[in-house]
Write a structure and sequence with these properties.
Helix content: 40-55%
Radius of gyration: 17 Å
Strand content: 5-15%
Structural class: alpha/beta
Number of domains: 2
Number of helices: 8
Strand order of the largest sheet: 3-2-1-4-5-6
Largest sheet: 6 strands, parallel
CATH topology of the largest domain: Rossmann fold
Length: 206
């Protein structure tokens, strides 16, 4: 295996609580019941971007149409909270980071996340992990599209790649691009994936 592609949230960093608080803060002017519905959608679709989730909030939960500029403003508010709170190295998942440090000179490590791309690059620099990855890719491009671009431009060979993620959306994005998927940090994925990493200490990356 030559290319190891990584999700960010839940795989490299414990960010769930902060992400949820970010949505609550950004949508603080709306009804609590509606925000709760968005949080439920967020939990079930961890691999989707904030752009998708805010659009879902208005189109499916509130059933209203809003200007793209309003969604962009919410995303901007959300990003401000993330940059302020996710730059804490104590949130990094040691199991993953230790493995990346051991293997980064042997494999091409690429970060492909649903997090905002600009925010993601800033966070990785703040956390001092940006040098582990040859590329750091995020939204507004969806995860499956970023993976497709990597394959299309021959930056990676899907037959020599794996994608490590913690959501069903990650699995779908990988499989749509003929990339072998490994689930991590979400036992629910055992229901749909035979490839699961319980701990990187026992993971053999051949």
């Amino acid at each position: 295996m030559k290319y190891v592609l990584w999700d960010f949230d839940g795989v490299i960093i414990n960010s769930d609580e902060i992400r949820m608080k970010g949505f609550v803060h950004a949508l603080r002017k709306y009804k609590e019941d509606d925000i709760d519905k968005l949080i439920s959608y967020h939990k079930a679709n961890g691999g989707l971007s904030r752009y998708n989730k805010f659009e879902y909030f208005f189109s499916k939960i509130l059933e209203v149409t809003v200007e793209q500029s309003h969604i962009n403003k919410l995303c901007s508010d959300y990003t401000e909270i993330m940059l302020k709170n996710l730059g804490n190295k104590d949130l990094l998942i040691k199991d993953s980071i230790d493995f990346i440090e051991q293997k980064r000179n042997e494999k091409d490590m690429i970060l492909v996340s649903a997090s905002d791309g600009i925010e993601l690059n800033k966070l990785c620099k703040k956390l001092k992990i940006d040098h582990y990855f040859s590329m750091i890719l995020g939204s507004p491009k969806p995860k499956d599209e970023n993976l497709r671009d990597l394959v299309k431009t021959k930056r990676i060979d899907p037959a020599m790649s794996i994608y490590i993620g913690d959501s069903i959306n990650d699995k779908q994005a990988a499989e749509e691009n003929s990339i072998k998927f490994f689930g991590y940090n979400n036992r629910e994925l055992l229901k749909s994936s035979k490839n699961y990493i319980y701990t990187f200490q026992e993971f053999n990356l051949s």
